[in-house]
């Protein structure tokens, strides 16, 4: 985003929000939170739950106001606004943070986690804390890691069963170099696009497909215009709940800790809702007549060798990758 456009977005958000952390009389603090997902989505409900916990922990002194359904912009815009303190709390995918916080790229590497259980074990431990701490030098406070399920490809043209089936497909990707390179390595044509534009892109043929998890595929209604869902499960790139460092630094130490504790408590709630939503979403998709197929993952995994070389290239990132692997043993 250019400087002029970015400042305009910040100004627009400030008009909606009244500007960042609000300290009203009697130290009453309202934290504004952004999420692109619709009301009822697990991450949205988890942030609401965090707000309830935080309000209780602070005796009502701090509240969280959640703006869902990309009311405050798509993820790229909210990330920038959060850095400037216009938005206080932001739920975004790790993917658009890859170019900002390199450690997030390692977590998003294709096939780096063997299962959902392994992912949760790793991200709940020292590795997860290390990655969250890496946000702070960039102007954000990493508070919690939310699930995002296993991402798979879906499209309007054909089932994807082999690498050959990927060739020529125009696949929407998040605004992340890692995802761009991953799709290129698989032989398809990556097209960066905001999440909110994917349905119309599929409908008009601007793109042939995209990649995401069951709840996103279903709740966005992409299954209506992309009837082939191929279970390659290439990534479990998670979500992050982060806070503007500007907003965080305005709070006293006691309240900072309360924010961190409430965010951590919201993870359990998010996962409960996520597991239920995955099951519900898959059932809706299956009943709609979508063609679902398994994929032989081995050739896909082999094609990822250059991606690992590029995104775990420094000694620090290689060490982080090894920690992820060791934690799954």
TrEMBL record:
GO terms for biological process: transmembrane transport. The keyword Signal applies. Keywords: Receptor, Signal. CDD domains: PBP2_TRAP_SBP_like_3. Coiled coil: none annotated. One of its GO terms (molecular function) is carbohydrate binding. NCBIfam families: dctP, TRAP_S1. This is Tripartite ATP-independent transporter solute receptor, DctP family. The lineage of its organism: Bacteria, Pseudomonadati, Pseudomonadota, Alphaproteobacteria, Hyphomicrobiales.
């Amino acid at each position: 985003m250019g400087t002029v456009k970015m400042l305009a977005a910040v100004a627009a958000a400030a008009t909606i929000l009244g500007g960042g952390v609000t300290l009203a009389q009697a130290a009453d603090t309202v934290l504004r939170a952004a999420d692109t997902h619709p009301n009822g989505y697990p991450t949205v409900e988890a942030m609401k739950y965090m707000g309830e916990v935080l309000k209780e922990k602070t005796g009502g002194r701090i509240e969280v106001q959640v703006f869902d359904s990309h009311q405050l912009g798509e993820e790229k815009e909210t990330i920038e606004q959060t850095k400037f303190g216009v938005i206080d709390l932001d739920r975004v995918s790790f993917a658009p943070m890859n170019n900002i916080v390199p450690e997030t790229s390692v977590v998003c590497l294709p096939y780096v986690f063997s299962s959902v259980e392994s992912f949760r074990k790793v991200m709940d431990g020292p590795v997860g804390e290390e990655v969250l701490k890496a946000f702070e030098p960039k102007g954000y406070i990493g508070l919690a890691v939310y699930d995002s399920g296993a991402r798979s490809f879906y499209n309007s043209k054909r089932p994807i069963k082999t690498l050959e089936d990927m060739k020529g497909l125009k696949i929407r990707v998040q605004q992340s170099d890692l995802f761009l390179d991953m799709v290129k390595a698989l032989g398809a044509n990556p097209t960066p696009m905001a999440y909110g534009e994917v349905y119309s892109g599929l409908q008009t043929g601007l793109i042939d497909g995209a990649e995401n998890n069951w709840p996103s595929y279903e709740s966005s209604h992409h299954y209506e215009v992309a009837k082939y869902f191929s279970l390659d499960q290439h990534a479990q790139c998670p979500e992050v709940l982060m806070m503007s460092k500007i907003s965080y630094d305005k709070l006293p130490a006691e309240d900072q800790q309360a924010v961190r504790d409430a965010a951590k408590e919201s993870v359990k709630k998010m996962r409960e809702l996520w597991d239920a939503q995955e099951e519900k979403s898959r059932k809706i998709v299956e009943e709609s007549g979508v063609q679902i197929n398994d994929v032989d993952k081995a050739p896909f995994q082999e094609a990822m060798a250059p991606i690992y070389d590029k995104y775990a290239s420094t000694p620090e990132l290689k060490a982080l990758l090894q920690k992820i692997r060791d934690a799954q043993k």
